[in-house]
Amino acid sequence: MSKLNPKQQEAMTYVSGPLLVLAGAGSGKTSVITQKIAYLIEQCNIPAERITAVTFTNKAAREMKARVSSLMPKEKTRGLTVSTFHQFGLQFLRYELLHTPLKGNFSIMDADDSKRLLMELMMRDNLSGAESRELVGKAIKFISDWKNDLIEPDKAMETLDDPEDMIFANLYALYERNLRAYNAVDFDDLIVLPAKILSENQQLRDKWQNRIRYLLVDEYQDTNTAQYELIKLIVGPTGKFTVVGDDDQSIYAWRGARPENMALLKEDFPKLKVIKLEQNYRSTNRILNAANTVIMNNEHLFEKALWSDKGQGEKIRIINCRNDDDEAERVAKEIVAHKLRNGNEWEQYAVLYRSNFQARMLEAQLRQFQVPYKLSGGQSFFARSEIKDVMGYLRLILNPEDDSAFLRIVNTPKRGLGPATLEKLGLFSQEHSISLLASCTHGGLPHVLPSKAYSTLKEFGDFIEHYTRELDQHPDPVPLVRQMIDETGYIDFVRSDSKTPQQEKGRLDNIEVLYTSIQALINRAEDDDDKTIDAVIRKLVLLDMLEQQQEEENTNKVNLMTLHAAKGLEFDFVYIMGLEEELLPHRNSIIAETIEEERRLMYVGITRARRELTLTLAAQRRGGGQMRTTTQSRFLEELPEEHLDWPANAKKKKAERDPTVVANEYMSNIKALLKKKNM
Ligand code: ATP
Ligand code: MG
């Protein structure tokens, strides 16, 4: 662990009041938080369980915990909370269940579930007459924005300019009612509900303010209104907290983040101390210079001047490619050649891009060259349909009230139930105020449904209820889960539904991976309460939503991720792809005139690099079924010319060989090796 500089030291030891550490990328903000946790425990004698640190992703939380543990004996860190806002909120709701509108077994709806529910509501109430995706997308955005701004359904209408948007306000009210009726919360509720409960209950506030003696928040610039309110409610008026952030790295405005919260802190906590850090410990000066120059084009809340003692470093390379295929191939070859030339590890490399689709071609190329890679922030394991289906069965078994799970699986695999039947079932469940599952086995159902539909539903209901009983407290649940899924005929369904043998194998493998993970979580659980399948599934559902990235055991791989997912991370060699107008900056941002946010994203990308940065662009790119000619990104023009190395004026270093030749050689070596192995 590196020794902190005097400014960092000051930030670490300042505990007498609220503190904001405001500093550019790579200046050691996260390092300050980690060391400060250790300082609070060891020097200030604050018990670990009275300290809470909030980070942006599960990955960051895990890393932070590990770093703290490396600074002191493990016993001392027991009870320390290092989590994301959402994890923290979930824990809060569990503790304070009695103060919530929820019952014990509440379920958590992920984005996909929320969407399905909204779709249902729109159809059921004929709000739109159409199940148009666009409308649902808009509704989700409206509702999430309202929630993150802590605006309740009855106040939502007042915020609307356009009377046509009224349907979204109505839908919001309906959606909330349904969530509560299903005893479910959505992702936003994990923050919004705790904030609401705390703001309405002085006693509870006192309890939590007393319980959390010190709060630390990383990536503070990306907190939204609800999160900021939650912070204020937890720390109370004395404000025992340290938050660290960089307004230039605020990249989640589209999710309600408010960089103004930085300025608000000063108003809400007049005693706020602000410490600025100016030395960057991550990057070479050319990289820093590029980052600083680009971000200068934005308006600033706070000026920062970063410097580093890592020398000038290499120029930033810009590679012009003919088209997107060529770009993917070039990046793959460059990485192979660079690695071989310098004897590096794969994990030192990262390829960043604006949109997930850009990874597809690159993945194919990397596979072609046998380069191990890991993709984070793409389609997560849990977002895959087979996983969601199996999880749907598990969720329904564990929580018979979970109507969204019911709707997902009642006809998967196909049981011949049409929309008319399901609508009638829905009405029936509303009339009797019972869940959809309970309706299936209700004595009154045969009177409203044709006998065939009824018997299918009854059979389905009995099946689920049977396994609910079987799985409850079962000492070895995983084989039972497997048996249940087999009995549903789901595996046969996957076989017949897959388009290629590879797809079929992939999907079946995924299901196996799910079983294995459930077993592993059960084995790993420390106390008995966590060993139940119920606890494990809850954990999986949460992991799924919060993480959106697969945990990888083998870490020596090239990192592929979106610019958003790269926040807070660092790599020796960084490639940013697709420096084109409409891609970076993104088309939507150009239309919405939110270029500044895209520029911050560019800034985040550049500042991930420790030693070398390469930017690529394609002259032509596929889109909408045809090749289109692209325009180079405005951000390229904003970079400092003197630190760039364009291919046209790139003089090849003598010893350096053409990457294509090197990569091809590497390929044939591998092929030879594989051949040998087979023999
Ligand atoms: P970001 O804004 O990207 O989140 P950050 O401000 O959180 O960056 P860190 O990730 O904490 O910065 O630190 C960047 C790098 O600098 C890390 O590798 C860290 O170990 C190193 N570092 C931080 N402080 C020091 C120091 N005083 N001496 C040497 N290295 C340091
Ligand atoms: Mg950081």
TrEMBL record:
Gene Ontology cellular component terms for the protein in this record: cytosol
InterPro entries linked to this entry: DExx_box_DNA_helicase_dom_sf (IPR013986), DNA_helicase_UvrD-like_C (IPR014017), DNA_helicase_UvrD/REP (IPR000212), Helicase_Rep (IPR005752), P-loop_NTPase (IPR027417), UvrD-like_ATP-bd (IPR014016)
Catalytically driven reaction(s): ATP + H2O = ADP + phosphate + H(+); Couples ATP hydrolysis with the unwinding of duplex DNA by translocating in the 3'-5' direction
Gene Ontology MF, one: single-stranded DNA binding
Any Gene Ontology biological process: recombinational repair
The keyword ATP-binding belongs to this UniProt entry's keyword annotation: yes
Residue ranges occupied by any UvrD-like helicase ATP-binding domain in the UniProt entry: 2-284
Keywords: ATP-binding, DNA replication, DNA-binding, Helicase, Hydrolase, Isomerase, Nucleotide-binding
Subunit note: Homodimer.
Record's protein name: ATP-dependent DNA helicase Rep
Organism: Psychrobacter piechaudii
Upper taxonomic lineage: Bacteria, Pseudomonadati, Pseudomonadota, Gammaproteobacteria, Moraxellales
